[in-house]
Amino acid sequence: MTAIPASSSDSANLTRALASLTRLRWALLAVAVLTLAALSAAGWELPLPALGATLLLLAGANLSLAHAGLAPQTTLRAGLLADTLALSALVALTGGAANPIASLFLGPVLFAALLSPGWFAWLLSLATMVAYGVLFYWHEPWPLLGGDAAYAFHLHLMGMWFTFALSALLIAGVVARLARGLSEREAALARAREIQLRNEQLVALGVQAAGAAHALSTPLNTLTLLADELAASHRDDAVLAEDLALMQGQLASCREALAALKRGGEPAPEPAPLFLTLAERLAAWATLRPQVQLRQQLPCAPGPTLALDTTFWPALYNLLDNAAEAGGGRVGLAATLADATLTLAIVNPSGRLSAEQLARAGLAELPSDKPTGLGLGVLLTHATLSRLGGRVTLTNRPEGGVCAELTLPLPTTKDA
Description:
Layout: H1 11-41, H2 48-67, H3 72-93, H4 106-115, H5 119-134, H6 149-233, H7 238-263, E1 272-273, H8 274-288, E2 293-297, E3 305-306, H9 312-326, E4 330-338, E5 341-348, H10 355-360, H11 376-388, E6 391-396, E7 402-409
Parallel strand pairs: 2-4
Antiparallel strand pairs: 1-3, 4-5, 5-7, 6-7
Helix pairs in contact: 1-2, 1-3, 2-3, 3-4, 3-5, 4-5, 6-7, 9-11
């Protein structure tokens, strides 16, 4: 049985519970028909027309409720009332309260308490108690087999065991499903809390980034003018001119980054061979980090032709920056493609992550105590890749250092 619906928003859970109840009702009807057939064949004195009519009415109610299009709670309550009325009629026709199947009154009450707690559960409980009490006085005689009361009593005891076993199985099944549903809900709530925490941090970072972009715009323009003037006045000094050209390139990259931030991101790129695009992006990153030694292992083939989401590249750069700062200027990158999934292994050859950093990586900002260098980069990368359907995993390498494995499912591709 499905776990307890917490509110009207859990209609999907209640719908699944109704489907389970419908199947259970059909199964019990089949068991009742087979039992009546077996007892009748053995010579028991049973009011078969009345019993058959009761089972037929319950089957009709089960079929009608499944296709009536009523609200889930209405369907549930009508079905449980039908179960109670049908069971009362069956017990009244076969001995009343002395019939061991009377203990099955607990079934509708249990399902009502789980799936429709409140006034209806209490009302159904009261109704079953009244029905059970009435069956002590208003019922047909207990059926006998050729007047053999001893054999009938023995069969009564067997019936008590059968109904107890059936009740125990129903209760155990419901409780097991309930416990599993509660644990799944707790896990979902924990994931939702982590996502909410990360989103709140990202919103705060977005506000800070907007403020930083506004504050940096004027200093960058000033530095660009100064660099241009210095380059114009020191053209004869080859060494200084080279340094100033590097400075101008770095400032231009900063201005482009601020412009992209104001625009809300880069324009959608055209499809291009994957590994050629990756090589170009890595070369652009290496230009901005000339002091870093980047060892890359890319497949020789150009790869499939596609257009990656523009937010993927800042996520990749965050990991590269992190590894470069933590690895003393040495970074390794290996790329593989299998089953339409891109895998990038970014290796920082020195340092290790603590158990706390490994457990919380990507979920919250952590203090960056070098040489591990874990900070906002992993948080932003984790959020971006989660949105794109990928993930990033941090592990300590046995030989030393840290490996950040980035996996990203690729969109529909065309072979290059």
